[in-house]
Every structure is written in C-alpha cells, then in structure tokens.
Design a protein that fits this description.
Layout (H helix, E strand, L loop, with lengths): L2 H21 L3 H20 L3 H17 L4 H17 L11 H34 L16 H8 L13 H8 L10 H8 L2 H14 L15 H33 L4 E2 L20 H6 L2 E2 L8 H6 L3 H6 L3 H12 L7 H16 L3 H7 L2 H15 L5 H28 L2 H10 L3 H15 L26
Antiparallel strand pairs: 1-2
Helix pairs in contact: 1-10, 2-6, 3-4, 3-5, 3-6, 4-5, 8-10, 9-10, 10-18, 14-15, 15-16, 15-17, 16-18, 17-20, 18-19
Length: about 475
C-alpha cells in the first residue's frame, strides 16, 4: 500500500468513532462539529490547496443566489470547468494539488451540482405555489429554504464521505441534522453486519496485488509471455482493484452508520444517493422511533455480491459506486442531448471519464462501456428469449463470464491510465473485447435484436443466484 492509501484508510477508520460521538448530538453541534472535523481533515491532507474547494463553493453559492431558477446547469458548467483548470495547474506552472485535494474536489463537485439542483427545484415549486394561489403540504425531498453561505460551507466540508464518498444530497444532510430521537436509530449492529467482510477483502487485496503487481504490465518482459498469460493477467488486476474499493467503500459506509447518517425507516424505500422515495411521517416519541425498522440504503455505495455475480454489464454499473451512479443518472443521463439509450450512455460515460480525470485510459475504458451495452442488449433480445429454460440458464452463465472479462479488460485502461500503456496491453491481447463486442452487435442486428428501450424487463436476468445475498 502506498502512503496515500494508508492515509485514506486512517481517515476512514477514525470516522467511525467520530460518528458515534456525533450521533446523539444536537443539530448545531452536528452541523458545525462535523464541518470542523471535515475542514480539519482537508487542511491536514491538502494544506494550502484547500483554497480550490473554497473557491468552488463560493462560486457555486454565488450562482445559486444570482440565478436560482437555472442554477443547476450553471453550477454544472462552473464546477466542471473548474475541474479542467484544477487539472491543468501543472501545465500553467502552478503548484500541483495533492491526491487528497483531487479526492475532495471530486466529491465536492457532485455535492454542489446536487445542491444547485435542489435549490432550483425549491424555487420552481415556490413559483408554482404563487401562481396557483394555494400552498401545498411538504413535498418529498424538497428543501425547506435556500441554504445560506455558512450552511453551504457546513454541508460541503462535512467530514462524512469528504474524500471517498458516499455522495449524499443536502436533503439527506438536513435529515441527519434534524433526525428525531437519534438514540433510537440502530448503529452498532448494522455497522458490524456491514463491516465483517472488509478484513477478508483487505487480505485478498494485499495478496492479489503482491502476486500480480500492476507495474509488471508496464515492463517489456511482460509482453514476452504467452498470450494466455497476458489474457489471464487482467483478471487478478481487476480482482485487486475490486477488493481495494470494497474495503474503502465498506469503511466509508461504516462511518456513516456509526453517526446514524442516512438512516431512514424501511417503509421510506430509500435509494442509494437519492434518499427516500416514499413519504414517511417522523416518529412522535422515542418508543415509536425505536419500534421502526431502519436501513442505510441512502448511503450504500457498493453491493459486492451483485457487482461480482450480476449477469449484465448494465447491472454491473448499477451496483458499483452506487451513490455516484445515482448522481450520474439523475443529473447527466436524464439531461443528455439524445434520446437513444446507447447515445445517452455514451454521453454519461464521457462526462464520467472527465470527472475522474484527464488520463486517456479513463476515456478508453469508459467509452468502451456503451459498445458493450449495445452489443449485449441487441444479442440478448435477439436470442435469449428463443432458448429453453435450460438454454437460458447456460446463456446467463456465458453472459456473466463475458461480462466479467469485459470489466477486466476495461479496468486495465482505468489503472494503466496512459494512452501508450493501455493500447499496448490491449494490442497484446488483440483488442479481443472490442472485436467480440462488435461481432455480438453485428449478430444481434442481423437477427433483428431490439434496442434497450424496447426490451422486456421481465425476461432479463439480474443475478446467477436464485436469491441475492447481501452482507447486511
């Protein structure tokens, strides 16, 4: 593990006892105490580069105040433009930010764009009320008022997920501050249920990364190995990549659970990133609060089992970095300048690559996803429904195997980063996934396979197991 990875791990682990301290605190202590801890962590890890996050926050707040009815698009343009400047600092002869500054900036971009969208929704709802002449009751997910500058700063620097996620909306943050009877919300038992696989994943990461180091792929000697060895190598590289993020995101979720952050009654049917989808009245007494069943789906960032064992490429995206996937679907995919599922996915993956950074490997990997999506949807709709139940089961196993190899292949671009290293590795295995996807797409089109928007969801498998296993 690098020094940066050790620092991330320490930050994640100390967030857990800090969460228990804040859980039963009042709204004021939660707001300003959590912001003080987050700002302290930012200053400690980023130093003077903390100024970048402050400039981004102030710019977004100014846009919200100036144009509340259109601030979402403006905030998106502002924060993504600042990311370009932020990543071009070395080219401009300015000090290069630390990796921790980059992590803070990435999560802050998501939070500020979401905040602007929530303020815009509030402004539009208020205008409708004025036009209709009567006031409606509280609307699910709507903010009570526009946050002040200090409230925006407290949300932005809240220590929860400040470097690793999960992403959460301002409405989720407010619900935590105003949580009724927080002592009745379970923390310890859900935390232990969530945390138990993390040590195993950590050991598997250390073992796999030691036996199959990524640096070997950059050496000339690697390309003297036989083709099967080169093909196989991407499997343990992606395995180590998954184990690393499983540990980080489980630890981040545990920090939230310790604080009771993102806890909602099960009846609210909360979604990762978005929060409750059904109105659920707050409990009126500690006894009623204690009688409710809660979950932490709002801050759930990874579904390890489904990531590994779902059948389709499309589903694999849904279960990975779940709160960020919600953000991309809500704020990028829905507003994409196209109606086609594949074109919308291409637009979303392009902006996702840009959000991650400017390394060519990101773009090569992310822009391979739409090709895989188009190929699997066309071929599946053309052939799977014609098979017997046994044939469909065999199809799903083959589909799952190819899905995992596609993600192995794309992961190499994500971790190698440079154009030369990525293309050198892909060329050494003859761009097999690209050609396989193109062949599957061509066959699906020839057999009359429908587009993703016309597929029947009922006929699509989601997992190889009859019942999805969950760590909780």
């Amino acid at each position: 593990m690098s020094p940066e990875e050790w620092t991330y791990l320490v930050v994640l682990l100390i967030s857990i006892p800090i969460g228990f301290l804040f859980k039963k605190a009042g709204p004021g202590l939660k707001r300003w105490g959590a912001a003080a801890v987050g700002l302290g962590l930012t200053l400690f890890t980023c130093g003077p580069h903390t100024l970048h996050s402050l400039v981004t926050i102030l710019g977004t707040w100014a846009l919200i105040q100036a144009q509340p009815c259109s601030c979402h698009a403006l905030a998106l343009a502002w924060t993504f433009s600042y990311l370009l400047f932020f990543r071009a600092l070395s080219l401009l002869g300015l000090p290069t930010p630390t990796p921790f500054t980059n992590a803070v900036q990435l999560l802050l971009t998501l939070k500020l764009v979401s905040l602007a969208s929530e303020v815009q929704d509030l402004h539009l709802a208020q205008r409708k009320e004025m036009a209709s002449g009567f006031s409606k009751g509280p609307t699910l997910g709507l903010l009570p008022d526009v946050p002040s500058l200090m409230e925006t700063l407290s949300y932005s620097y809240c220590y929860v997920g400040i470097m690793t996620g999960p992403f959460f909306r301002y409405r989720t943050y407010l619900d935590w501050l105003e949580q009724p009877f927080p002592g009745a919300v379970p923390s310890l038992r859900p935390l232990l249920r969530r945390a138990w696989p993390a040590p195993l994943f950590g050991l598997l990461f250390l073992l796999s990364s030691h036996l199959f180091p990524l640096e070997a792929v950059r050496e000339d000697a690697f390309y003297a190995r036989p083709l099967p060895a080169r093909l196989f190598y991407m499997i343990p590289v992606f395995f180590a990549f998954r184990m690393r993020f499983y540990v980080a995101w489980i630890a981040a979720e545990c920090g939230c659970i310790a604080a009771g952050f993102g806890a909602y009654p099960v009846a609210a049917k909360a979604r990762a990133g978005g929060g409750p989808t059904l109105q659920c009245p707050p409990p009126s007494s500690p006894e009623k609060a204690a009688s409710l069943e809660y979950d932490y789906e709002t801050i759930r960032n990874i579904d390890c089992y489904s990531t590994d064992f779902c059948v389709r490429v499309r589903d694999g995206m849904r279960y990975w970095n779940m709160t960020v996937q919600w953000w991309l679907a809500q704020y990028i995919y829905k507003s994409a300048p196209a109606r086609s599922y594949v074109l919308r996915s291409t637009w979303t993956m392009l902006l996702s690559a840009y959000w991650h950074g400017l390394h060519p490997g990101y773009y090569l990997s992310f822009l391979t996803i739409p090709l895989c999506l188009a190929a699997e949807s066309r071929l599946e709709s053309a052939l799977r429904g014609r098979l017997s139940p046994g044939g469909q089961k065999t199809w799903d196993w083959v589909h799952w195997f190819l899905k995992m190899r596609a993600y192995d292949y794309m992961c190499m671009g994500f971790v190698l980063l440079s154009l030369a290293d990525t293309l050198r590795y892909w060329a050494s295995i003859y761009f097999c996934i690209h050609f396989l996807a193109l062949a599957a797409l061509g066959l699906g089109l020839a057999l009359g396979g429908g587009s993703p928007s016309r597929r029947k969801a009922a006929s699509q498998p989601t997992s190889l197991a009859p019942e999805k296993l969950r760590e909780e």
